[in-house]
Write a structure and sequence with these properties.
Blueprint lengths: L4 H17 L3 H14 L9 H12 L6 H7 L7
Helix pairs in contact: 2-3
């Protein structure tokens, strides 16, 4: 394989993406700590999808707007 500018650009782009995943070791350690809490002895049977979703929620800084969510729901009327 000959190294051309195009190949080097692709490798450089990939390296920047990987490095930017965790801009500091603090975020990486926080994610690992959250994962160890999620995958404890009592919850070791979580599927990969559920574990991924729980980890995403644990490390996210987004705050849900509960008032908006409640306004969107309708009360269940009795029969």
């Amino acid at each position: 394989m000959s190294w051309t500018f195009g190949n080097w650009w692709g490798i450089s782009r990939l390296a920047r993406r990987i490095i930017s995943m965790f801009p500091s070791t603090h975020r990486c350690e926080a994610a690992f700590s959250a994962l160890s809490k999620i995958k404890c002895r009592n919850r070791n049977r979580l599927s990969l999808q559920h574990t991924t979703e729980a980890l995403r929620i644990a490390v996210s800084s987004a705050e849900p707007d509960f008032n908006s969510l409640v306004r969107q729901k309708e009360c269940q009327k009795s029969h």
